[in-house]
Design goal:
Elements: E1 9-13, H1 17-29, E2 33-37, H2 40-49, E3 54-57, H3 66-75, E4 82-86, H4 91-99, E5 104-107, H5 112-125, E6 133-136, E7 139-142, E8 147-150, E9 153-155, H6 159-170, H7 178-186, H8 196-208, E10 217-220, E11 224-227
Helix pairs in contact: 2-3, 6-7, 6-8
Length: about 230
């Protein structure tokens, strides 16, 4: 999935050189225009001195921590969306980051497909949308009209089922764990000990797969689920 013709500019503030370069190369291949800052002071200067559509921010930075940087930006009325990317993956750290002004929080190690999906979701919410119609086989999901079709059949979904299907389509052909699904669709504080993820996936399967020879949603034993769009 590619962003619009005008490439979104993303600033990666990350002190691990190899990781920063890897993220930048991956995003460039997906149609983004990345820039890199390797410490908090450089990150703050580049954030304020250049135009960015989104910032990827590590918390453990030299010279100025990511949390300090984020708070300074927000205190100055800086509105560019920020996605925290940090090894501090505990619930408390996520809550602090979100309350400090982050738009999303992704823990390390992370999946590249999930990083892209989260960037796309943030850009969409901020008005820099990506694809407005998502597809897999003969299934289409229209984000503007909030409609779903399988071939010519219109499928009625609840808001939660719609969000779940959108997440699957943005990560099609990738195995998604129940934890990842719960975090993305229900939020960080969702109790993954319940079976609500399984229940809603059963609802979604019935809605989009029943009566069709080609099944899209599959269980991967011991891992999670996958929406397959490969022949």
């Amino acid at each position: 999935m590619k962003p619009p013709t005008e490439k979104p500019h993303v600033l990666i503030i990350e002190d691990e050189h190899k990781l920063a370069r890897s993220i930048a190369e991956h995003l460039a291949g997906e149609g983004y225009a990345p820039g890199i800052a390797l410490d908090g002071l450089e990150g703050l200067a580049r954030a304020l001195g250049e135009q960015w559509d989104i910032i990827i921010l590590d918390l453990s930075l030299p010279k100025k921590s990511g949390m300090q940087l984020l708070r300074e930006l927000r205190n100055q009325g800086y509105l560019t969306p920020v996605l925290i990317l940090s090894a501090r993956g505990g619930t408390g750290d996520r809550v602090k980051g979100l309350r400090a002004g982050a738009d999303d929080y992704l823990g390390k190690p992370f999946d590249s497909a999930e990083l892209l999906a989260r960037l796309e979701a943030i850009l969409r919410r901020s008005g820099r949308g990506t694809d407005m119609v998502l597809t897999a086989a003969d299934l289409t999901l229209d984000l503007v009209g909030r409609t779903v079709k399988r071939g010519r059949e219109v499928i009625d979904l609840s808001p939660r089922e719609f969000s779940l299907l959108e997440y699957f389509l943005r990560n099609k052909n990738h195995v998604l764990t129940r934890k990842r699904i719960a975090e993305a669709v229900w939020g960080y504080t969702f109790d993954t000990g319940t079976n609500i993820v399984n229940v809603y996936i059963a609802y979604l399967r019935k809605a989009i797969d029943d009566g069709h020879a080609k099944k899209l949603i599959h269980t991967v034993p011991g891992q999670g689920y996958i929406l397959k769009d490969k022949k």
